[in-house]
Design goal:
This protein has about 220 residues and is an all-alpha fold. It folds into two domains: about 20-120, no CATH class; about 125-210, Serine Threonine Protein Phosphatase 5, Tetratricopeptide repeat. About 65% of the residues lie in helices and about 0% in strands. It contains 13 helices and no strands. Helix 8 (about 125-140) packs antiparallel against helix 9 and helix 10 runs parallel beside helix 12.
Length: about 220
């Protein structure tokens, strides 16, 4: 437990330092006239107002805007109100990809800045870090992607689904040892093997978790 606490504290300090640097460089403060609200806790509640007016199906699909002509304007408003809005972050990345630009059209910040804001807002949101890791990897920034994913592993704690999903992202990075470790953790916490184990087997990287020796076996081996 002490080891986890120290690791988490060190991670929080690193996050704070990174956040300060990014804020100074132009990623902006998080204060907003409405919110900001944690997507994990407020979807279906106070975010209903924002989603009904700004994060419509047409905006999410990047077809057209809701409050104006451009989807980017409404995605921008959504992410200012809820920086860790998972679906809006995904749509924002798609918009940047379509524009072939690190700054999505009609949005206030770059993709990196929007993810920085999300991480600053809720450092323990493992979905945000997984999404950011995938984006960084696709940009060829694999070392930075691994940093985000390793941070997410710490914050996943005893959530089997989080460990399982992180394992799938590690597979995308071809980080097979890390993916295997996440598979073992998820299964130990009660998650069925599923696609993650299938993918590891397809890459010939699957290994059963080492089992601790039983008390009887330990006693027998210790006997003279």
């Amino acid at each position: 437990m002490k080891h986890f606490t120290a690791a988490a504290l060190a991670l929080c300090l690193m996050t704070a330092q990174f956040a300060h640097a990014q804020n100074v460089s132009g990623c902006g403060a998080l204060e907003n006239h409405y919110g900001p609200y944690d997507y994990r806790k407020e979807k279906g509640r106070r975010l209903n107002i924002v989603e009904g007016a700004h994060f419509t199906p047409a905006v999410e699909a990047l077809i057209r805007g809701s409050s104006g002509a451009f989807a980017g304007d409404d995605l921008n408003y959504t992410l200012l109100t809820s920086p860790n809005h998972h679906r809006a972050l995904l749509a924002m990345v798609r918009l940047a990809d379509r524009a072939k630009s690190s700054k999505p059209p009609h949005m206030q910040y770059t993709v990196d800045c929007f993810f920085d804001r999300a991480v600053r807002f809720q450092p323990d949101d493992t979905v945000v870090r997984a999404l950011y890791g995938r984006y960084l990897n696709r940009q060829g920034r694999t070392a930075e992607a691994m940093q985000q994913l390793k941070a997410a592993v710490i914050f996943a704690k005893d959530n089997p689904l989080s460990h399982y999903n992180l394992g799938l992202v590690f597979m995308e990075l071809k980080a097979y040892d890390e993916a295997l470790a996440q598979a073992h953790t998820a299964i130990a916490l009660g998650m069925p093997p599923g696609a993650l184990v299938d993918q590891l087997k397809a890459q010939r990287r699957w290994q059963e978790a080492a089992r601790a020796p039983s008390a009887a076996a330990s006693a027998a081996s210790a006997a003279p």
